[in-house]
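Notebook entry, structure prediction.
Reason for the run: the old model in the group folder had no record of what sequence produced it. Starting over properly, with the input documented here first.
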Amino acid sequence: MRFKVPSAPPGKTPGRLDTIIADQAGITRSRAKRLIGQGRVFIDGRPPGKAGERPAEGAVVEVEIPEPETAPGLVAEPVALDVRYMDDYLAVVEKPAGMVVYPAAGHAKGTLLNALLHRTGGRRAGAGAPLRPGVVHRLDKDTTGLMVIALEDSAYYGLAAQFRSRSIKREYAALVWGVPRGEEGVISAKIGRSRADRKKMSTSARRGKEAVTSWRVAERFPAAAGFPAASLVMARLGTGRTHQIRVHFASAGHPVLGDRTYGGKTKLVIGGQVIPVPRQMLHARLLGFVHPATGETMEFESPLPPDMETVLEKLRQYPGKQAGR
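New structure, fully documented this time:
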């Protein structure tokens, strides 16, 4: 769109650029700021210096407002999915690496929910957001392991209550860089959006939320000649913040191997041999909860996926390995 900066009231100077754009285009000021930052705004043919710039009256402002991306409706797809347990109320599934949990812009098809809807013959919960019915928790795209999905509304609310009360049992296996001090410990550091990159989470965010991760070392691989330090740890969530385990271990100096977002190494070189780390080495290995309909205590365990086992086996071939507990 294209418009001229309107005249300011007598005795007033023209307003901020982001405010003017928001008023003229009928969008929020934060979206106007994003458009400016993306280089989609020009004042008399030049890019503005900052969102707070005050353009002169009568200046011509050009704004490119892209069409919003929209996610398609949720449809059943015959996508392979390992369903560990399913009844009329819920399903426990194994999420593979590379699979997104539910449809969103950029991931229209092939999600876990598309696959599950096919397995249930279209049966799903009504509770939850339109494109993620029954979803009470999720795993990142490149994290593998166990998830529980509600298939009926009362089950959704019952499971959600357990997540809120933190009574759900969740343990993850993670291959991390370095060797943590001690055999076990607790990382307690608030997590919020990074001030430098809004796509990332950080323990130094201004408005972080409480986050607690307990851990124990299962295996350690101390540094030796030509041998990088690494450890296999088991981590339990006391809270469920976005990217919690990845952020907490990165903040402690032990990023998850293969985690491109938070600094994890994507390959290891040992004795001249390159060991590729194809994705973040994080796996949801244990999930426990009370069945919201029957009251039965349910617990599921999942073996490490082949790509994690491959990296571990190569680490175990070299001297210096020490078992944890």
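Summary: The radius of gyration is 24 Å.
The old model has been moved to the deprecated folder.
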